[in-house]
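Researcher: I'd like a candidate sequence for this fold, 273 residues long. If you have to choose between options at a position, lean toward the conservative one.
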Protein backbone atom coordinates (compact mmCIF):
# COMPACT_ATOMS: atom_id res chain seq x y z
CA UNK A 1 0.00 0.00 0.00
CA UNK A 2 1.19 3.51 -0.86
CA UNK A 3 -0.07 6.73 0.75
CA UNK A 4 0.66 10.10 -0.86
CA UNK A 5 -0.79 13.48 -0.02
CA UNK A 6 -0.84 15.81 -3.01
CA UNK A 7 -1.13 19.50 -2.14
CA UNK A 8 -2.29 21.82 -4.92
CA UNK A 9 -2.32 25.57 -4.27
CA UNK A 10 -4.58 27.74 -6.44
CA UNK A 11 -5.41 31.47 -6.77
CA UNK A 12 -9.08 30.85 -5.91
CA UNK A 13 -11.39 30.94 -2.93
CA UNK A 14 -12.71 27.65 -1.57
CA UNK A 15 -16.22 28.71 -2.63
CA UNK A 16 -15.05 29.39 -6.19
CA UNK A 17 -13.23 26.08 -6.36
CA UNK A 18 -16.42 24.12 -5.71
CA UNK A 19 -17.93 25.50 -8.92
CA UNK A 20 -14.64 25.45 -10.84
CA UNK A 21 -13.92 21.82 -10.02
CA UNK A 22 -17.37 20.52 -10.99
CA UNK A 23 -17.37 22.57 -14.20
CA UNK A 24 -13.92 21.24 -15.13
CA UNK A 25 -14.89 17.64 -14.31
CA UNK A 26 -17.78 17.93 -16.76
CA UNK A 27 -15.50 19.37 -19.44
CA UNK A 28 -12.77 16.76 -18.85
CA UNK A 29 -15.35 13.97 -19.03
CA UNK A 30 -16.35 15.09 -22.52
CA UNK A 31 -12.70 15.34 -23.59
CA UNK A 32 -12.08 11.74 -22.52
CA UNK A 33 -15.16 10.09 -24.01
CA UNK A 34 -15.56 8.62 -27.50
CA UNK A 35 -15.02 5.53 -29.60
CA UNK A 36 -16.47 3.04 -27.13
CA UNK A 37 -14.48 4.42 -24.21
CA UNK A 38 -15.10 7.12 -21.67
CA UNK A 39 -17.29 7.96 -18.72
CA UNK A 40 -20.78 6.71 -17.91
CA UNK A 41 -22.66 8.54 -15.13
CA UNK A 42 -25.03 6.19 -13.32
CA UNK A 43 -25.98 8.32 -10.32
CA UNK A 44 -25.72 11.99 -9.36
CA UNK A 45 -27.89 12.66 -6.33
CA UNK A 46 -27.87 14.09 -2.79
CA UNK A 47 -26.74 11.88 0.09
CA UNK A 48 -27.08 11.98 3.87
CA UNK A 49 -25.67 10.03 6.82
CA UNK A 50 -22.34 9.08 5.26
CA UNK A 51 -19.86 10.37 7.89
CA UNK A 52 -16.54 11.78 6.72
CA UNK A 53 -13.56 12.95 8.79
CA UNK A 54 -14.88 11.48 12.02
CA UNK A 55 -18.42 12.67 11.40
CA UNK A 56 -17.56 16.34 10.78
CA UNK A 57 -19.20 16.06 7.35
CA UNK A 58 -22.28 13.91 6.75
CA UNK A 59 -24.21 15.08 3.68
CA UNK A 60 -23.66 16.32 0.15
CA UNK A 61 -23.74 15.01 -3.42
CA UNK A 62 -23.14 11.35 -4.35
CA UNK A 63 -21.97 10.27 -7.79
CA UNK A 64 -21.42 6.82 -9.25
CA UNK A 65 -19.55 6.56 -12.54
CA UNK A 66 -18.07 3.82 -14.68
CA UNK A 67 -14.90 4.52 -16.67
CA UNK A 68 -14.57 2.45 -19.83
CA UNK A 69 -10.85 2.84 -20.49
CA UNK A 70 -9.18 0.03 -22.40
CA UNK A 71 -6.48 2.33 -23.83
CA UNK A 72 -5.87 4.22 -20.60
CA UNK A 73 -4.15 1.51 -18.59
CA UNK A 74 -0.53 0.35 -19.04
CA UNK A 75 0.13 -2.00 -21.94
CA UNK A 76 1.35 -4.77 -19.62
CA UNK A 77 -2.00 -4.73 -17.81
CA UNK A 78 -3.94 -4.84 -21.08
CA UNK A 79 -1.99 -7.97 -22.06
CA UNK A 80 -2.84 -9.74 -18.80
CA UNK A 81 -6.43 -8.64 -18.26
CA UNK A 82 -9.28 -10.29 -20.18
CA UNK A 83 -11.24 -8.25 -22.70
CA UNK A 84 -14.05 -6.27 -21.06
CA UNK A 85 -12.46 -6.35 -17.60
CA UNK A 86 -10.94 -2.87 -17.77
CA UNK A 87 -13.89 -0.97 -16.37
CA UNK A 88 -13.20 1.23 -13.37
CA UNK A 89 -16.02 2.11 -10.98
CA UNK A 90 -15.89 5.42 -9.11
CA UNK A 91 -18.07 6.35 -6.15
CA UNK A 92 -17.75 9.85 -4.70
CA UNK A 93 -19.28 11.50 -1.65
CA UNK A 94 -18.83 15.24 -2.07
CA UNK A 95 -19.56 16.86 1.31
CA UNK A 96 -17.71 19.96 0.23
CA UNK A 97 -15.23 21.19 1.38
CA UNK A 98 -14.46 17.56 2.28
CA UNK A 99 -14.84 14.72 -0.23
CA UNK A 100 -14.13 11.01 -0.51
CA UNK A 101 -13.71 9.06 -3.74
CA UNK A 102 -13.37 5.27 -3.99
CA UNK A 103 -12.15 3.66 -7.22
CA UNK A 104 -12.49 -0.11 -7.77
CA UNK A 105 -12.60 -2.78 -10.46
CA UNK A 106 -15.38 -5.10 -9.20
CA UNK A 107 -15.68 -7.10 -12.42
CA UNK A 108 -12.11 -8.43 -12.37
CA UNK A 109 -9.79 -7.37 -9.55
CA UNK A 110 -12.56 -7.17 -6.94
CA UNK A 111 -11.02 -6.65 -3.46
CA UNK A 112 -7.47 -6.80 -4.83
CA UNK A 113 -7.65 -3.28 -6.28
CA UNK A 114 -8.71 -0.07 -4.59
CA UNK A 115 -7.84 3.62 -4.75
CA UNK A 116 -9.14 5.79 -1.93
CA UNK A 117 -8.94 9.58 -2.31
CA UNK A 118 -9.79 12.03 0.46
CA UNK A 119 -9.89 15.73 -0.47
CA UNK A 120 -9.87 18.70 1.89
CA UNK A 121 -9.93 22.34 0.73
CA UNK A 122 -8.47 25.07 2.95
CA UNK A 123 -8.97 28.84 2.51
CA UNK A 124 -6.05 31.31 2.77
CA UNK A 125 -3.54 28.47 2.84
CA UNK A 126 -0.27 27.72 1.04
CA UNK A 127 -0.22 23.99 1.70
CA UNK A 128 1.39 24.06 5.15
CA UNK A 129 -1.24 22.36 7.35
CA UNK A 130 0.35 19.17 8.66
CA UNK A 131 -2.51 16.70 9.12
CA UNK A 132 -5.78 17.92 7.63
CA UNK A 133 -7.00 14.34 7.14
CA UNK A 134 -6.41 13.45 10.81
CA UNK A 135 -4.29 10.41 10.01
CA UNK A 136 -3.21 8.01 12.71
CA UNK A 137 0.49 8.02 13.70
CA UNK A 138 1.19 4.79 11.77
CA UNK A 139 -0.25 6.23 8.55
CA UNK A 140 1.58 9.52 9.06
CA UNK A 141 4.85 7.58 9.10
CA UNK A 142 4.31 6.20 5.60
CA UNK A 143 2.55 9.24 4.08
CA UNK A 144 4.57 11.08 1.46
CA UNK A 145 3.78 14.76 0.85
CA UNK A 146 3.92 15.95 -2.77
CA UNK A 147 3.49 19.66 -3.55
CA UNK A 148 2.10 20.34 -7.02
CA UNK A 149 2.94 23.66 -8.66
CA UNK A 150 0.53 24.16 -11.57
CA UNK A 151 2.76 26.85 -13.09
CA UNK A 152 6.24 25.35 -12.75
CA UNK A 153 5.91 21.57 -12.59
CA UNK A 154 6.74 19.93 -15.94
CA UNK A 155 3.98 18.37 -18.02
CA UNK A 156 4.35 15.78 -20.74
CA UNK A 157 4.50 17.14 -24.30
CA UNK A 158 1.35 15.12 -25.05
CA UNK A 159 -0.47 16.91 -22.22
CA UNK A 160 0.63 20.47 -22.92
CA UNK A 161 -2.02 22.85 -24.23
CA UNK A 162 -1.08 26.50 -24.91
CA UNK A 163 -4.49 27.72 -23.70
CA UNK A 164 -4.03 25.83 -20.41
CA UNK A 165 -0.67 27.32 -19.43
CA UNK A 166 -0.91 29.22 -16.12
CA UNK A 167 2.33 31.11 -16.89
CA UNK A 168 0.65 32.89 -19.82
CA UNK A 169 -3.05 32.87 -18.91
CA UNK A 170 -4.76 35.94 -17.49
CA UNK A 171 -8.44 35.99 -16.57
CA UNK A 172 -10.33 38.87 -18.13
CA UNK A 173 -13.11 38.60 -15.53
CA UNK A 174 -10.91 38.50 -12.42
CA UNK A 175 -7.53 39.86 -13.56
CA UNK A 176 -5.79 36.85 -12.00
CA UNK A 177 -2.67 35.49 -13.65
CA UNK A 178 -0.35 34.90 -15.26
CA UNK A 179 1.39 32.83 -12.53
CA UNK A 180 5.03 33.75 -12.94
CA UNK A 181 8.10 32.85 -10.90
CA UNK A 182 8.85 30.17 -8.35
CA UNK A 183 7.11 32.05 -5.53
CA UNK A 184 3.88 33.09 -7.29
CA UNK A 185 1.86 31.45 -4.49
CA UNK A 186 3.04 34.11 -2.04
CA UNK A 187 1.81 36.96 -4.24
CA UNK A 188 -1.72 35.92 -5.18
CA UNK A 189 -4.98 36.85 -3.51
CA UNK A 190 -7.20 34.91 -3.00
CA UNK A 191 -5.32 31.67 -2.36
CA UNK A 192 -6.31 28.17 -1.23
CA UNK A 193 -4.93 24.63 -1.19
CA UNK A 194 -6.47 21.27 -2.08
CA UNK A 195 -5.14 18.43 0.07
CA UNK A 196 -5.66 15.13 -1.80
CA UNK A 197 -4.75 12.02 0.16
CA UNK A 198 -4.36 9.03 -2.18
CA UNK A 199 -4.13 5.47 -0.85
CA UNK A 200 -3.75 2.72 -3.42
CA UNK A 201 -3.68 -1.05 -3.19
CA UNK A 202 -3.02 -3.45 -6.05
CA UNK A 203 -2.67 -7.07 -4.92
CA UNK A 204 -1.24 -8.94 -7.88
CA UNK A 205 1.89 -11.01 -7.29
CA UNK A 206 4.87 -9.69 -9.17
CA UNK A 207 3.14 -6.48 -10.25
CA UNK A 208 2.04 -4.80 -7.02
CA UNK A 209 4.88 -2.31 -6.61
CA UNK A 210 5.07 -1.51 -10.31
CA UNK A 211 1.34 -0.86 -10.64
CA UNK A 212 1.06 1.12 -7.39
CA UNK A 213 3.93 3.32 -8.57
CA UNK A 214 2.12 3.77 -11.89
CA UNK A 215 -1.13 4.69 -10.11
CA UNK A 216 0.52 7.35 -7.96
CA UNK A 217 2.42 8.73 -10.96
CA UNK A 218 -0.85 8.87 -12.89
CA UNK A 219 -2.63 10.65 -10.04
CA UNK A 220 0.06 13.31 -9.94
CA UNK A 221 -0.18 13.75 -13.72
CA UNK A 222 -3.97 13.95 -13.50
CA UNK A 223 -4.01 16.46 -10.62
CA UNK A 224 -1.42 18.66 -12.36
CA UNK A 225 -3.21 18.75 -15.71
CA UNK A 226 -6.67 19.07 -14.18
CA UNK A 227 -5.80 22.03 -11.97
CA UNK A 228 -4.00 23.80 -14.79
CA UNK A 229 -7.29 23.47 -16.66
CA UNK A 230 -9.30 24.67 -13.65
CA UNK A 231 -7.35 27.92 -13.41
CA UNK A 232 -7.08 28.55 -17.15
CA UNK A 233 -10.84 28.16 -17.62
CA UNK A 234 -11.64 30.80 -14.97
CA UNK A 235 -13.56 33.00 -17.40
CA UNK A 236 -15.78 30.05 -18.38
CA UNK A 237 -16.93 29.10 -14.86
CA UNK A 238 -16.56 32.38 -12.93
CA UNK A 239 -20.00 33.65 -11.90
CA UNK A 240 -21.79 30.31 -12.33
CA UNK A 241 -24.01 29.09 -9.49
CA UNK A 242 -24.42 25.55 -8.15
CA UNK A 243 -27.80 25.47 -9.93
CA UNK A 244 -25.97 26.23 -13.17
CA UNK A 245 -23.51 23.41 -12.44
CA UNK A 246 -26.25 20.83 -11.84
CA UNK A 247 -27.83 21.79 -15.18
CA UNK A 248 -24.45 21.43 -16.90
CA UNK A 249 -23.96 18.01 -15.29
CA UNK A 250 -27.37 16.82 -16.53
CA UNK A 251 -26.59 17.98 -20.05
CA UNK A 252 -23.11 16.44 -19.91
CA UNK A 253 -24.53 13.04 -18.92
CA UNK A 254 -26.65 13.00 -22.09
CA UNK A 255 -23.69 14.06 -24.23
CA UNK A 256 -21.46 11.37 -22.71
CA UNK A 257 -24.00 8.63 -23.38
CA UNK A 258 -24.06 9.60 -27.05
CA UNK A 259 -20.34 10.31 -27.48
CA UNK A 260 -19.25 7.00 -25.95
CA UNK A 261 -20.88 5.13 -28.82
CA UNK A 262 -19.31 6.99 -31.73
CA UNK A 263 -16.11 8.57 -33.02
CA UNK A 264 -12.56 7.88 -31.90
CA UNK A 265 -10.96 7.16 -28.54
CA UNK A 266 -10.11 10.45 -26.88
CA UNK A 267 -8.17 11.77 -23.90
CA UNK A 268 -5.05 11.04 -21.88
CA UNK A 269 -3.35 7.77 -22.82
CA UNK A 270 -1.49 5.71 -20.22
CA UNK A 271 1.58 5.18 -22.39
CA UNK A 272 2.20 8.83 -23.36
CA UNK A 273 5.56 8.98 -21.53
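Model: Candidate sequence:
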Amino acid sequence: MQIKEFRVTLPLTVEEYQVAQLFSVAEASKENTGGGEGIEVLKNEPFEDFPLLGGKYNSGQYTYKIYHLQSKVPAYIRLLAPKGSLEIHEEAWNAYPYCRTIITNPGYMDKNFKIDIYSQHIENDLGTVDNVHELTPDKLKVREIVHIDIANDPVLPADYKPDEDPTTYQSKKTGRGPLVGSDWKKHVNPVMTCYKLVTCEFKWFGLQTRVENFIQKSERRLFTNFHRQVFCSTDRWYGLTMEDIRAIEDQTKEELDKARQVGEVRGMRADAD
